[in-house]
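Running this now, will post back.
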Amino acid sequence: MTKILNYINNEWVEPKVSEYADVINPATGEVIAKTPLCGKVEVDAATKAASDAFPAWRRTPVQDRIQYLFKLRDLLLANHDEIGRVITEECGKTLGEAKAEMVRAIENVEVACGMPMMMKGEMAEDVARGIDEIMLRQPLGVCATIAPFNFPGMIPFWYLPYALATGNTYVIKPSEKVSLTMKFIFELIDQVDFPKGVVNLVNGAKDSVDAILDHPDIRAITFVGSTNIAKYVYRRAAENGKRVQAQGGAKNPVIIMPDADMEMATDIVADSAFGCAGQRCLAVSLAVTVAEAHNNFTELICDAAASRTVGYGLDDGVQMGPLIDQNSKERVEQLIGLGAKEGATALVDGRGASVKGYENGAFVRPTVLADVQPNSDMWKTEIFGPVLSMMHVNTIDDAIKLANSHVYGNQASLFTSSGSAARKFRYEVEAGNVGINIGVAAPMAFFPFSGWKDSFFGDMHGQGMDAVEFFTQKKVVIERWPKEWSRKF
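Update: finished.
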């Protein structure tokens, strides 16, 4: 049983709490750790450490700050495989998926190492005679991330390296369901030897979240999770005068045109819909076939779903792991049943899954639901599981209209061989991340991870220059230096 501690002021601290949450290996059902459910006391301690560290860290030249990130990058690379194993053990995804997650995390560290160029300001001479104007970017202070369970290694790195490189200090609160990944990563951070208090880790659930949202010394907060909680985080933090970016839920559509390469589209859509057991915010969850694409794609995607190898993510040949826990399994299976009651047909039904040797695992096999009805609960709800809903329309205009009618706008994809159709789609579709013959349109680290409508609350997104803008505040200086003043000295 691994002991989970907080990391505050460069020391591992055992919190004095009475409540713990089980960290469960979702493939085996075994309890592998217990997360301390910390609250205001622990958040106050971490924030004080970060606040005390901020003045000196801010004054550290940016080219010196990024040297710590270079060292962190090397440690992440050297421990890439082991981090992947930890993610698989507590999150359930396959080892390949877990390692791919950390590739994206490392990319963000690498991009943030370019901060000497990224946070430069602007200057204009003689905006009036003898007057110059300068815009500077300065750090905010203490910032925090409230992280989700589905990408325990990657998502904190959408924010952390940019915040540190721009001169902020930081507090991370991982999901209580997957606290082992950040524990391992903070063991690496401890080796980096950041100045005391620059990076801190607090474990917990709602009490620690509320303490972060309310703390007067925390200036900016990032969050990824469901839309309901994203709205709560955005509202409460904003009421307390904080900068917020809150990533919410999704119902990502993919449109299959008749001229698409059907085999390629099937392989990519299957990986998107069923990869990570459907527990990612960019997973395709709705396939819209256009005209004669219907029959061919339906047959192929059903075959791909039925033949996908499900099991423990550390075993060879496994293509999909379990859901995060039994509660998620029950929820997803209930939603599949609801879809059937609403008139959908389960062409491939993943309920009641059992994997030999892992009978206590939270497994749901890939599922394909045909003829999902517009405005049904199945249409509206983010399932967050390996379930692909299917609908059919006659034209691309109908498909785009259908996609745009949803409250979410995280990702939308199109499969076609027509440049005209692709341009029309990318121009008209209402989503922040768009894929053309791409199933998971995850932006590279030097682009923002966008999201529209009820998929995002805030202004600036994670990654790239959006992260630089989010973690800095602009100061405009207007200067005049008359000659007669200089003669006096």
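The longest strand covers residues 131-139. More later if anyone needs it.
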